[in-house]
Design brief:
Organism: Geobacillus subterraneus
Protein name: Transposase DDE domain-containing protein
Strand order of the largest sheet: 1-2
Distance between the termini: 44 Å
Radius of gyration: 17 Å
Helix content: 40-55%
Number of domains: 1
Number of strands: 2
Number of helices: 7
Largest sheet: 2 strands, antiparallel
Length: 160
Amino acid sequence: MKDFPIRFVLTDEAITPSAGLALVGYLLHRTKLDKRVNALRLPTVRREVHISHSDVIRSMIGLLATGKTDFDHIEAYRQDDIFSASMGIQHVPSSPTLRQRLDQLACLPMTEAIIWEESMRLLVRQHATLSPCWTKGKTTWLPLDVDGSHLTTPIRKKKE
């Protein structure tokens, strides 16, 4: 994915969920997330899969960035060129593929480590300003909303 010729300016204007996707995709592009998750091997997924692991991860991140948490919400974005271009997705997965692949990736111990490491690498690389919310002695607490649990909690089977 090439850099977008976009200039970000602080304004009072409301940002719509799809407008924010360009920034999310750009930031993801500045990580090694794609290379690292695509190197993971799943026994049930062929190496030459049509939909890469990174497409699956980026699709879920895109959903979360727009406030959607249900796998079925991906269906509305499957033919959305803005969604795929903004997020750097080659092939947007179907809802079952998204759910199944995330479930499979969650079973690999390295998946969680990759998510955490790349999140931290991005914060450091972007020189993110982190402001503590509370300090006591030498201990400082910092609010940081990084949730990889949706990738590490296997989907429970429905009761039959």
